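Running log. JK asked me to keep both predictions on one page so they can be read side by side. First protein, sequence followed by its tokens:
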Amino acid sequence: MFLALLDADPTSDRGFLFGWPDLSQNEPSFARRFISRYHGYVIFWGICFTFWYHPMESTPGHFLGFTNGCLCFLQSSMIYTKMHVTKQWTFFIELWPLIHSCVIAYQTGNRDLPQREDLWPIFFFGFTTVLVIAWIFTFDLLQWRDNSEKS
């Protein structure tokens, strides 16, 4: 739910799925205004719940998880500032779960299945796909396509 809210909020800038729908020229809908106005409450509750629920252990995965929580607390403290919506900062915040989930999956392994396959590639592929789908039009990674169409 956390990442879904993060991906749904800036749809006017980057769309929801590969830049679609392009809402930059349209008046925001009620749903988009509602998400933009109140997403912080749900995310802040999720961060507090995570701190309350998760154990404090001295593993790399737990360290990365608590760092993720601290980064999200920092993000929520910067509301109404330009830093809250800076592309590079928000990309870093959305990239962190990819790193955290891969480390957790690697350190816990897959002890229950007889094949003992590693699970970290599943998390890496899934979170990378979400990042690419959400951010490909934000950083103008397809700028070469626009230049070739003008020729």
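And the second, directly underneath as requested:
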Amino acid sequence: MASTSRETLSPVSTSVTVESSCFKSVTLKASTSVETLSPIPTPSIKSQRRYNRKKQSSEILTTTPMKERLLETEMRRDIKRKKLESKEKNKNVRKKLYEENELETEELEEIEGERNEDDEDICLVCGDGSKKTEHWFQCQICTKWAHALCSGWDTAEGYVCDFCDK
């Protein structure tokens, strides 16, 4: 029968002799109490976590204060969502503008790069033939070529030679 009071146990003296083929003969003496071998456990201190949650309460959802809180939280969510959407739109607009600029430069390079298959062309203005490595502009009307320096234009876009302009 188990008792609820603590009883102090006296040390028990025993001696045990162990003999085995693997071990030498060893004599163990135990003159210690059971409490020193296996002390009574003490409860550990629990670390308490505190959660920063709002306490829930029961309320009627259609009451004015509760309605106002719900509307306020919904408005905050809408504002955040609109901000994110506007950022995405701005990002997409910038991306589209960048892509359009890339396409325009590619088209201009194609316009400037279109020339006859010959190694040399003759400039409309100076009449000099030169290699394809120089920048050339093509007239939009007569489709003849002129050096970029001879034409007096900054870009090939919309270039019309002096002969077609008259």
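Observation for JK regarding the second prediction: Confidence is low (pLDDT under 50) at residues 115-119.
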